[in-house]
């Protein structure tokens, strides 16, 4: 664990609250906060879990209402021909352009992250049948590990585990040490869900390709927070959540990315009618579309694709570089506050200090954090808890202010102080 010995305490001068207000005053994205539901009504004191479930946008509320009345209610079945059939791809292209560094025709909105992971990973290993191994890491999100374990059993493949540091993440050196002529696929997360560690996608992708393997990146904790350059980095496959930093709402469908050159080489395992060349031909046999459409299976979940569009539009408007700059400033500020207020209470930083290696959340470690989290939720301060002893502070760049960060961190300090004092 890292001691907070080098945090720039000047960030907190002359006092933390004044510093927070000055940072808000100078924040070029400050005005976006008022475009979210619940940021101005004083209901929640501090929301630190936009990395698990983003807040709704006001535009999204309007869009959903309009859709129910005019779209669904007014257009009825005609809506499919007029707009909905193409929606997975029009939103996918917009997301690719705004946040992923992906040219059109490669990104789509599909099923849940879990199901998309299965479909794309299965398609990848099936495309390299002479290879027998999947590389993954021990600290990836459970669903990623479980899905790959299932595929390995289904296809008779071997899982090659990288032991990752739970306070950091997987390095290019670790990947280089395990890939080889038997590696079919490498699956890793861009931002580690526990520590916030930011993996070097370009370097790791190059290493995997040098070994002749394909890569699948899980972007759940980076999409909408940390920019990617999927095309430029030569990424083969990616999946990611839309209900975290993209504010699509609980259970909104995930996105998938398949590099154009690979699309016709890959056949996904859930061969449904929505993935074929001519959907309404209703033909006798499955003939997958030549495009990214082949990765769809059944009827697209249109209602779930509504709200995310407004966050994608906001990102397109302000630019991912500005989003990332704010994200780094927020995590820097939270770390400075933790040094000032929480180090004296025995808290350690379980996330990278270097902003270049850090995503949009930080984890603070102390044995009492489970109890601290429960107490904070009662007080309308909402972080989340991950074992062992980790309080996750997720700072969604478009909806979180520096003052909110300051108020929430003060509540963490007070709760921890009360709980450890009681003992
Ligand atoms: C949140 C998250 C998921 C969630 O998958 P669902 O299918 O949406 O439940 C998967 N992987 C990672 C890395 C995540 O952070």
UniProtKB/TrEMBL annotation:
* Role description: Catalyzes the cleavage of L-kynurenine (L-Kyn) and L-3-hydroxykynurenine (L-3OHKyn) into anthranilic acid (AA) and 3-hydroxyanthranilic acid (3-OHAA), respectively.
Q: Which UniProt keywords apply?
A: Aminotransferase, Hydrolase, Pyridine nucleotide biosynthesis, Pyridoxal phosphate, Transferase
Share what the entry says about its subunit structure, partners included. Homodimer.
Q: Which residues cross the membrane?
A: none
What high-level taxonomic lineage is stated for the organism? Bacteria, Bacillati, Actinomycetota, Actinomycetes, Micrococcales
For this protein, the record's Gene3D superfamilies field holds: Aspartate Aminotransferase, domain 1, Type I PLP-dependent aspartate aminotransferase-like (Major domain)
**UniProt EC number:** 3.7.1.3
Pfam families per UniProt: Aminotran_5
Q: Where is the Aminotransferase class V domain?
A: 119-336
Q: Which terms in the Gene Ontology molecular function aspect does this entry carry?
A: transaminase activity
Q: What family is this?
A: Belongs to the kynureninase family.
| Pathway assignment | Cofactor biosynthesis; NAD(+) biosynthesis; quinolinate from L-kynurenine: step 2/3; Amino-acid degradation; L-kynurenine degradation; L-alanine and anthranilate from L-kynurenine: step 1/1
> Per its record, how is this protein called by name?
Kynureninase
Q: Which cofactor does it need?
A: pyridoxal 5'-phosphate
Reactions catalysed, as given in the entry: 3-hydroxy-L-kynurenine + H2O = 3-hydroxyanthranilate + L-alanine + H(+); L-kynurenine + H2O = anthranilate + L-alanine + H(+)
Q: Which domain of life is it from?
A: Bacteria
């Amino acid at each position: 664990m890292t001691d907070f010995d080098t945090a720039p305490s000047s960030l907190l001068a002359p006092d933390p609250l004044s510093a927070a207000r000055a940072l808000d005053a100078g924040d070029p994205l400050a005005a976006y906060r008022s475009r979210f539901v619940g940021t101005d009504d004083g209901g929640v004191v501090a929301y630190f879990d936009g990395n698990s479930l983003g807040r709704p946008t006001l535009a999204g509320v309007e869009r959903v209402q309009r859709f129910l009345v005019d779209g669904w209610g007014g257009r009825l079945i005609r809506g499919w021909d007029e707009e909905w059939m193409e929606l997975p791809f029009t939103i996918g292209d917009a997301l690719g352009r705004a946040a992923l560094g992906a040219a059109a025709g490669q990104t789509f909105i599909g099923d849940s992250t879990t199901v998309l992971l299965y479909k794309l990973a299965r398609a990848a290993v099936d495309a390299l049948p002479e290879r027998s191994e999947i590389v993954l890491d021990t600290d990836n999100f459970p669903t990623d590990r479980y899905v790959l374990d299932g595929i390995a059993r289904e296809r008779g493949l071997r899982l090659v585990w990288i032991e990752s540091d739970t306070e950091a993440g997987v390095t290019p050196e670790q990947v280089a040490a395990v890939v080889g002529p038997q590696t079919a696929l490498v699956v890793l997360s861009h931002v580690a869900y526990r520590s916030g560690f930011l993996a070097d996608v370009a370097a790791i992708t190059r290493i995997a390709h040098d070994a002749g393997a394909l890569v699948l990146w899980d972007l759940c904790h980076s999409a909408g927070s940390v920019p990617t350059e999927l095309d430029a980095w030569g990424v083969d496959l990616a999946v990611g959540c839309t209900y975290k930093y993209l504010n699509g709402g609980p259970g909104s469908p995930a996105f998938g990315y398949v590099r154009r050159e690979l699309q016709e080489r890959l056949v996904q395992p859930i061969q449904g009618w929505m993935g074929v060349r001519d959907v309404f031909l209703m033909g006798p046999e499955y003939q997958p579309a030549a495009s990214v459409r082949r990765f769809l299976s059944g009827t697209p979940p249109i209602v779930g694709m509504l709200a995310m569009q407004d966050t994608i539009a906001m990102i397109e408007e302000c630019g991912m570089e500005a989003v990332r700059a704010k994200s780094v400033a927020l995590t820097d500020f939270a770390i400075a506050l933790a040094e000032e207020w929480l180090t004296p209470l025995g808290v350690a930083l379980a996330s990278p200090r270097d902003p270049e290696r850090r995503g949009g959340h930080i984890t603070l470690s102390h044995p009492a954090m489970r109890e601290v989290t429960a107490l904070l939720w009662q007080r309308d301060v909402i972080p989340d808890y991950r074992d062992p002893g980790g309080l996750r502070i997720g700072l969604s760049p478009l909806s979180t202010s520096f003052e909110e960060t300051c108020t929430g961190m003060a509540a963490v300090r007070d709760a921890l102080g009360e709980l450890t004092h009681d003992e």
